[in-house]
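Homework help board

Subject: predicted structure for assignment chain

Our instructor gave us this sequence and asked us to write out the predicted structure in token form, then describe one feature. I got the tokens but I'm not sure how to describe them. Can anyone check?
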Amino acid sequence: MYDLVIVGGGPAGLSAAIYAARRALKTIVLAKSFGGQTALNLNIENYPGVENISGLDLMLTARSQAEKFGAEIADADIKVLARMESGFVITSAGGKEYRAKAILLALGRGPRRLGVSDESKFVGKGVAYCATCDAPLFAGKNVTVVGGGNSAVDAALLLSKIAKQVYLIVRNGSLTSEAVLVNNLNLANNVKIIYHTGVETIKGRDFVESIIVKHLDTGNNEELPTDGIFIEIGYEAKADFLGNLVDRNAEGEIIIDSYNRTSMAGIFAAGDVTNVPFKQAIISAGEGAKAALAIYDYLVGVVHN
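My token output:
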């Protein structure tokens, strides 16, 4: 039996693994997607102590540290988490069981779907949620990015270096991205920003061929030819395997207290999957460290009110 099973291999999970392993807790990290969303960032410039690093390199360094101190890391898609008399049991999609005295949920968040006609039909056939992963497939083609925040502007910037034409569809009247990203975007001569617009339909036969957009200020529809649509409208907490085991808010985030405790004794949570505001890698890493220390206290019998 493990002292601690950490579900999630992003900044929160790996930070917690480092701190837990240094406290000599028998720890394993189970991650369906190593590094989480952070690993998909090409450049991170706001992580203290590091001027510029790719998200993947940052996560690989954290993984190496965790393993150096004795934490195990394994690929696993978790399907069931259940309570038992002496702790908890986690079951993966392959049927393997992991038993632990305490659980840390550090699942991060998954991409939010657009929710329009034929979106699911064209996933992998022109509909994408990760520019870092799929941008090279659209070299010399026309592409569309949907969203107005950091992830959307990042995607548009990356695609502007690869694609022929980039449309950026923004529902509001302005971008909410960081100023430095907006300034860089304005320098790209093959990016057209279309404000006050929403996507109505995705069209095509075997692959995406066009989209129908609605101009919200006029109510008029327009068809834009596009070979791909990158949906960058934010992320949402996805932890359906938890059922009603722990309390979650209306947005699906796990509710925690200042010691990262959930409503179920022995289950803790950290990072973007929780109701802690501001979803940033540095915040998730700090929350993961804090959670590991709280879990250590829980396991040795220290009580926090």
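Reply (TA_rk): Your tokens look well-formed. For the description, you could write something like this. The chain has two domains: 2-111+235-300, 127-231. That's the kind of observation they're looking for.
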